[in-house]
Amino acid sequence: MTPLVATAWTSAVPIDERVAAVAEAGYRGMGLVADDLVAIRDTIGFDGLRQLLADQAADHGTTIAIETMPFSIITTVPMGAELVTAAAHPGVGLLIDA
């Protein structure tokens, strides 16, 4: 079976609940956009996201993907790749949507 990855625009649902719901639905990953990162920064913080990835996402086998958008603050694939590299976590990746 081909692994499914869920992507969605920014949601008011807290990130930890979204990770759990994605995993429970049988998806292997979910996308985040720049607005999600702002919400995460303002709530659990990036250290909290790293911990969430280490604990919850990895336990569920879920990957967090960052998607670049020309109208967001992460406008290019190289910018997204730099952010993913800086995250330095196996549970985060770059979503490339053609």
Summarize the structure.
The chain has 98 residues and is an alpha/beta fold. The protein has one domain.
Key descriptive features of the protein:
Xyl_isomerase-like_sf, 4-stranded parallel beta sheet, alpha/beta, globular, 15% strand, 98 residues
Describe the model.
- With 98 residues, this protein is α/β, with parallel strands linked by helices.
- The chain has one domain (5-95).
- It is 47% helix and 15% strand.
- It has a 4-stranded parallel beta sheet.
- Helix 4 (77-87) links the parallel strand 3 (63-67) and strand 4.
- The chain starts with a strand and ends with a strand.
- The mean pLDDT is 79.
Output the structural class: alpha/beta
Runs with pLDDT <50, length 5+?
Answer: none
Number of H/I helices: 4
The portion of residues forming beta strands comes to 15-25%
Task: Provide the succession of SSEs.
Answer: EHEHHEHE
Mean pLDDT value: 79
User: How many domains?
Assistant: 1
Coarse morphology: globular
The description of the largest β-sheet is:
4 strands, parallel
Tell how many strands the DSSP assignment holds: 4
Strand order of the largest sheet: 1-2-3-4
The helix fraction, in percent, is 40-55%
**Quaternary structure annotation:** single chain
In whole angstroms, the N-to-C terminal distance is 22 Å
